[in-house]
């Protein structure tokens, strides 16, 4: 007899997968530099090069992460053209109360609530920690979902806050930005280094191999790993959201509606926002490989929710 998977099994399994994926980022990065430079220098020198490149790259990532940590949430809300609401406004009082009630059920502080003036259906959460988090909802998702469905969506976003997914996604976005910039610097150094003195004749070749390793990491490995992390965090947020409301069916019903109209026009050119939204804000892209999709297939998300007990 097959064991029935509970909400807690889903959460635990997805957390383990996410941890393994995050650990693989630096390991693959170092391995790529080692393997590419091994083509032109001995293994010992290749290992020294890999470590020598990795350390300043990680330091740069840490510095840029601090900057993103300070301003990232306000930048995201600005990109979405979102504006804050409060329970003092009669028009939005019911929405604010719904967020407040779900936060209470989740055991988290009530986040700030922002509205995106778009008739599509989407939502996201942002903030540095649960104490200063924000939930943003489109006008469309407020109007087109019933109360239980909307609370399911809010619980999904509260799950992202409680699971610290915002922090994780900010780390991934920062890492990608730094490595893309570093690749450009290394390419320029390789071009000018190739014209250096004879005693440094290998330096240009080494730099070129390092640049190729960066390119493979930035444009092949990182997108695959980042999307895999994003998909696992969506599954975990679905499961945690269902645990908060004790109503997985409501979130499943909400997802059915959301995926019919999830495009948020103001986010069309902000591709990095796709992973933080409950559904792809560019709308369904059926030609995209499942490996490159920012979200799991909605059918699978609904299937998992409806299987929870």
Overview of this structure, please?
By secondary structure, the chain is mostly helical. The chain is built from 9 helices and 4 strands, in the order ααβαβββαααααα. Strands 1-2-4-3 form a 4-stranded mixed beta sheet, with helices on both faces. The chain starts with 6 loop residues before the first helix and ends with a helix.
Q: Which spans have pLDDT < 50 for at least 5 consecutive residues?
A: none
How many distinct helices?
Answer: 9
Largest sheet: 4 strands, mixed
What's the helix-strand series?
HHEHEEEHHHHHH
Radius of gyration, in Å, reads: 22 Å
Per DSSP E runs of 2 or more residues, the count of β-strands stands at 4
Query: How much helicity do the residues have?
Result: 55-70%
Give the strand content: 5-15%
From the spread of the alpha carbons, the general shape counts as elongated
Alpha-beta classification: mainly alpha
The average pLDDT value, as a whole number, equals 84
Strand order of the largest sheet: 1-2-4-3
From the N-terminal CA to the C-terminal CA, the straight-line distance is: 17 Å
What is the structure about, briefly put?
The chain has helices spanning 7-37, 43-79, 93-106, 139-144, 147-162, 165-193, 201-245, 248-258, 298-307, and strands at residues 82-85, 112-116, 123-126, 134-138.
């Amino acid at each position: 007899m097959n064991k029935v998977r509970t909400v807690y099994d889903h959460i635990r399994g997805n957390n383990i997968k996410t941890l393994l994926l995050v650990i693989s980022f630096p390991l693959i990065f170092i391995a790529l530099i080692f393997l590419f430079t091994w083509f032109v220098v001995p293994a010992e020198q290749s290992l020294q090069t890999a470590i020598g490149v990795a350390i300043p790259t990680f330091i740069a990532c840490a510095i840029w992460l601090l900057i993103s940590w300070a301003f990232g949430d306000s930048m995201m809300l600005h990109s979405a053209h979102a504006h804050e609401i409060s329970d003092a406004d009669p028009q939005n009082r019911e929405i604010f109360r719904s967020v407040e009630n779900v936060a209470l059920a989740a055991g988290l502080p009530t986040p700030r609530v922002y509205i995106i003036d778009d008739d599509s259906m989407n939502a996201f959460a942002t903030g540095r920690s649960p104490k200063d988090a924000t939930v943003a909802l489109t006008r469309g998702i407020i109007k087109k979902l019933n109360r239980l469905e909307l609370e399911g969506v809010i619980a999904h976003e509260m799950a992202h806050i409680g699971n610290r997914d915002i922090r994780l996604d900010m780390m991934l976005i920062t890492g990608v930005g730094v490595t893309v910039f570093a690749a450009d610097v290394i390419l320029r150094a390789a071009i000018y280094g190739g014209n250096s003195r004879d005693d440094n004749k290998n330096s240009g070749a080494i730099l070129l191999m390092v640049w190729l390793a960066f390119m493979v990491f930035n444009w092949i490995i990182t997108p695959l790993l980042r999307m895999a992390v994003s998909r696992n965090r969506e599954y975990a947020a679905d499961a945690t959201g269902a645990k908060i409301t004790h109503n997985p069916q409501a979130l499943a019903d909400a997802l059915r509606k959301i995926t019919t109209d999830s495009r948020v026009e103001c986010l069309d050119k902000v591709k990095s926002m796709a992973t933080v939204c409950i559904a792809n804000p560019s709308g369904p892209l059926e030609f995209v490989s499942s490996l490159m999709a920012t979200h799991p297939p909605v059918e699978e998300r609904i299937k998992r929710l409806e299987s929870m007990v």
